[in-house]
Amino acid sequence: MSKGLDLQSLSEFAVQEGDAYVALALHPFADQKIQAELEKLVFERKRLKLTFAAAPYTPKSVLTLLANEDDEQVRLRLTKNPAMPPELLAQLFKNASPAEIKNLAAHRRTPVEILEAIDWHDQVAIRAALCSNSHTPLGILRELVVDSSPAEKKGIVTNSNADVALLTQLWQDGDKFVQGEVAAHATCPEALREEALVHSDSLVRRKLAANETLDIDRLLRLMKDEDAQVRAAATGNTVLEESYRDGVEDDPSIRVRRTEAKREDLSARIIDSLADDEDHWVRRWVARQPAASEQVLERLSRDDVMEVRRAVSRNPNCPDNILERLAQDEESWVRAGVALREDLALQILAGLEGDEDIDVKSAVGRNPGTSEQVLLAIANHENKDVRRSVIVNPNVPDAALIKLQDDPYPLNRAILAGHPNCLTENLWFLLKDPEPQVRYTAGKALAVRCQAAV
Amino acid sequence: MKILVAIKQVASLDDDFEIREDGKDVDHDFCDYEINEWDDYSLETALQIRENNGDEGEIVVVTVGPEEADDELRKCLGKGADRAIRVWDDAIEGSDQVAIARILTKVVEKENPDMVFMGVQAADNAYAQTGISVAQQLGWPHAAVVNKLEYTPGASQATAHRELEGGLEEKITVNCPAVLTIQLGINEPRYASLRGIKQAAGKPLDEVSHGDLGLSDDEVGEAGSVSRVRKVFVPEKGQAEMIEGTPAEQAARLAEIIKELTGA
């Protein structure tokens, strides 16, 4: 078998092996003559046609051929395939069965003109599909909302095409869940925002508080809401800068303080205050803040809760002296956090290379600074998840990749086949893998390399 | 030491499938096939017993199924089983679990193993009867839903934990040889290495018919079965509607529904 990069050899291999999955991978790259040979394999059995019609990885060139098949089961699967191009969905609309039309009405890639052409009257399933499709145009939404069921209203209200009039109608006719979605909608009219602000149900106020188009004044009122979930939603709203969130760090609700700790725009003062919070989730989020000072990180690195120390180890600005100590932590999850850092000082990493814990071993396996000898040893580890870490290491030695192409765990071979680290030699080997997914991925990767080499 | 492990190639269904024209099964075009999950655990149990026995002993896998089932047998051989047996011919088509158990019983009698392991149930038909039926036909002790096993090859007894309702376990001893049906989670099944799969191509895979096992035509297939599949179908889903509005509107809608259902 040739180890070169040449599409002809690859195609001959697929035909010789009778491998429909490799043939599928090569089809879009081949010339017409070779494509005809590959198609014999791809369409050899009905089962394969059904599988490929439903598969999101099937290339457009094969989907195009399948769309011309006069087989209702194939067409039904194509209309559900998320990778179907809009023009093929439009083609399928001609002569579509009711089940296919329902799928087209729900498909996110169906062209708007097709959605507009669908007859949904007296068709419960098609109505429901259009109501839940986020691309359904406003004109159809207006018609659908008349006599719509509660479930259909819930679908319509989340559609970004809904305008003020439609949202107003939904607010009037809908339950609290529909009203909540109206309050969260970017196009929610002013009058309804005002109603939502004082709504008796906290769900509606919470949805309003999360609306990123809400004005500062209303957000500030919601920050004082009696319901902690509403205050938390307002606290997490990106519109509200820190100067408006005064005192949030002392809110009695941990839900509010956790939301605050997760924000990416915290000042050193707030970080310092939250670092002493009684809730360890708050401290965990603070420990990951890039703006946390060395003093805060030092304090949190000695926290009783292991997850807080782990969070410190993942902070991009954690200094070496703290990392050095955390690399000796009694909890392996913390040591693994240190070992995952690509910027880790080599002498700290070297100290972790002998660690036998599988989390640490996996982290060392991923680290680009790990020595070649250690990576080779990890590639031979008994644990399948530990071995996988070496595949994604940008400095993986060729010998480790050759070893891993024979890994008993199929997922490891599938990831190897799809990873840029994978050698051409690996890919040729994986073309004979027992798993179709691995063979397909290897075939596609080789075809891409062939094309790039031309 | 010899352990016989019975496996089955089971069907998993597509989202959209069609029933066969005779209405008794799903059209095979809409099925993918794989080894029954429970059987993976049974084989692993046997492999671990042999490893703990200094790799001494033989593991034989057997299935009743058409040629396509060879794929699963090859995988078992790739994991470390020594031999495989596939029993099939046209007369076996349509066998129920009792007829299948009759065939497996003949294989057990021929192979004379120290233990027989089977899955608790098959993922597709879910009868959960074949293993116990084999034990009954052999007249051997049995234990079902085993989730822990202590067995030393050559011992006259094995200790098994059985999974019961409500999180309870039952610890029992069974005289050997015995038939055990193995539960999911008893161990972590291994994957066949590529080298193992390649080597498996050279391992013996015997194909035998019901006649080779000394069974007559009326002991297999529909003739040898005690049950018949009459129909496989998708049950109609019930419909629910939330009736809203004023009491008068609700009453009007209710009257409409009653009229629709009664055809009045």
Describe this protein's structure:
The complex is a heterodimer of chains A (454) and B (264). Chain A is mainly alpha-helical. Chain A has 33 helices and no strands. Chain A is flat and about 70 Å long. Chain B is α/β, with parallel strands linked by helices. Helices cover 28% and strands 24% of the residues of chain B. Chain A binds chain B through residues 46-47, 50, 54, 73, 76-77, 80, 150, 384, 406, 408-410, 433-434, and chain B through 14-16, 18, 28-30, 190-197, 242, 244.
Secondary-structure blueprint:
The complex is a heterodimer of chains A (454) and B (264).
Chain A: H1 7-17, H2 20-26, H3 32-42, H4 46-54, H5 60-67, H6 72-78, H7 86-93, H8 98-106, H9 112-117, H10 124-132, H11 138-145, H12 150-157, H13 164-173, H14 176-184, H15 190-197, H16 202-209, H17 216-223, H18 228-236, H19 254-262, H20 268-274, H21 280-287, H22 294-300, H23 306-313, H24 320-326, H25 332-339, H26 346-352, H27 358-366, H28 372-379, H29 384-391, H30 398-404, H31 410-418, H32 424-430, H33 436-453
Chain B: E1 2-6, E2 9-13, E3 31-35, H1 37-52, E4 58-64, H2 70-79, E5 83-87, H3 97-111, E6 115-119, H4 130-138, E7 142-150, E8 157-163, E9 169-175, E10 178-182, H5 194-200, E11 205-208, H6 247-262
Parallel strand pairs in B: 1-4, 1-6, 4-5, 5-11, 6-10, 7-10
Antiparallel strand pairs in B: 2-3, 7-8, 8-9
Task: Describe the structure in brief.
The complex is a heterodimer of chains A (454) and B (264). Chain A has helices at residues 7-17, 20-26, 32-42, 46-54, 60-67, 72-78, 86-93, 98-106, 112-117, 124-132, 138-145, 150-157, 164-173, 176-184, 190-197, 202-209, 216-223, 228-236, 254-262, 268-274, 280-287, 294-300, 306-313, 320-326, 332-339, 346-352, 358-366, 372-379, 384-391, 398-404, 410-418, 424-430, 436-453. Chain A is an all-alpha fold.
Percentage of residues in helical conformation of chain A? 55-70%
Strand order within the widest sheet of chain B?
A: 9-8-7-10-6-1-4-5-11
Overall 3D shape of chain B: globular
How many helices of chain B does DSSP assign? 6
Distance between the termini of chain B: 73 Å
Secondary structure class of chain B reads: alpha/beta
Count of extended strands of chain A: 0
State the oligomer.
heterodimer
Largest sheet of chain A: none
Low-confidence stretches of chain B: none
Biggest sheet character of chain B? 9 strands, mixed
- Percentage of residues in DSSP E strands of chain B: 15-25%
- Coarse morphology of chain A: flat
Helix/strand order of chain B, N-terminal first: EEEHEHEHEHEEEEHEH
Whole-angstrom Rg of chain A: 28 Å
Q: What Rg of chain B is obtained from the alpha carbons, in whole angstroms?
A: 23 Å
Q: How many helices of chain A does DSSP assign?
A: 33
The N- to C-terminal Cα distance of chain A equals 20 Å
